[in-house]
Amino acid sequence: SGIEGLNAQTVKDNGYSQLKAGTAMISSHSLPDDMAQKLAQQPYISSVAVIYPQEKGSAIRCRDLANYTEHVCPSDASPDQFALLNFEEPVVKNVKLVDKQIATDGGKEYLVTVKHENDIDKLRTLVATNANKYDFNFVVSGRWAKQPHINPSIRELADLAYVGIGVTLFVAVASLIVSTIGGLMERRRSLYTLRLGGMRLIQLKRLVMVESVAPLLITSLLSCSIGVWTGAVFTKMFSTTLKPVLTPTYFAIVGLGLLTAIIGIYLILPMVDKLTRAEANQTE
Predict the structure, then answer these.
(1) How far apart are CA 258 and CA 175, in angstroms?
(2) Residue 187, helix vs strand vs coil
(3) pLDDT computed for residue 198 by the predictor
(4) Percentage of residues in the chain with pLDDT exceeding 70?
């Protein structure tokens, strides 16, 4: 459905989902130089890798890339060569190798493998203890980043939207059938005249069917197009990452509504025969 697609898209748009499930990334500008050693000494941490923030991402050694992320370096890359991965951007298919020399004496970030997901809180406490409390620092869990984080109310609103479409279609189909019956009764004289003029009953039914279905299809196409366009405009106004998607459920509801309307029109076609009989028009 559209919600499942939206869930998948949120994960793809989250660059941190490229971390492995057991990996956590630490970013801070005020951690001590020996933070890697302190991390390695913790019993709940299996391994530690130092990465280096760059202008367009983080430089990660190829020997660490496959251990902590879902990516691997090209086969011809050396273990000490650096790959560039931007966790602030959406997920990428392949990483790029860094051609320039990476300064390893500047800012540092850390990738760690925790033994259990519950150990993330211990890791955050350790980082907060060693970092300047006025500095911006965070710890991102790879397992957390791989999960869609959408307010459950969005699913409820989507379900309510489908219910609204269904109720609207029911009322529209009922109104269409009633108006078609009323139109046939108002046009009794003209239909009777056509039958007296030699038009066969099957031709009259076909005429009524075309006159009813053609406007229905044209109006439905225009209204659906305007509705989808309006939804896309509002989505872009309130979000830069959400992408409007036409789901099979949407097409099924609209198609079922049109089919019901056409069947309803077809079922009232026998009225044409009754309305155009001579005994029913003796006073005309």
Answers:
(1) 13
(2) coil
(3) 83
(4) 91
The model's pLDDT over 123-144, given as tens digits with 9 standing for 90+, comes to 999 999 888 877 788 898 888 8
- pTM attached to this predicted model: 0.57
Quote the CA–CA distance of 237 and 228 in Å, as a whole number.
Answer: 14
**Biggest alpha carbon–alpha carbon distance for the chain:** 105
Within 13 Å and on the Cβ side, how many CA atoms surround 35?
24
> What span, in angstroms and rounded, lies between the C-alpha atoms of 227 and 10?
24
Map out the domains of the chain as residue ranges.
15-145, 152-281
For residue 281, pLDDT over 80 is answered with no
Q: Are 55 and 49 in contact (CB under 8 A)?
A: no
SS3 176: helix
- Sheet-wide strand order for 23-28: 96-97, 82-85, 57-61, 45-54, 109-114, 23-28, 137-141
Q: How far apart are CA 1 and CA 169, in angstroms?
A: 20
Could you give the CA distance from residue 92 to residue 150 in angstroms, rounded to a whole number? Answer: 22
Tokens 């139109």 label which residue? 183
